[in-house]
Amino acid sequence: xxxxxxxxxxxxxxxxxxxxxxxxxxxxxxxxxxxxxxxxxxxxxxxxxxxxxxxxxxxxxxxxxxxxx
Length: 69
Prior knowledge:
Elements: H1 3-22, E1 31-32, H2 34-38, E2 46-47, H3 53-67
Antiparallel strand pairs: 1-2
């Protein structure tokens, strides 16, 4: 895997983590999808992970607010 793709997916993951944090949201399993590096995907994947229902509702609310701007 090319290092620039690894850097890109790491940077994207951190940008997403920061944006979620700015909205009071934490996805505990957010990270780079490691099997994606071994697969044949065009680019590495970001694993959004699991979250509880309270976090899912906060995420949905933040996305709705952003969509109406």
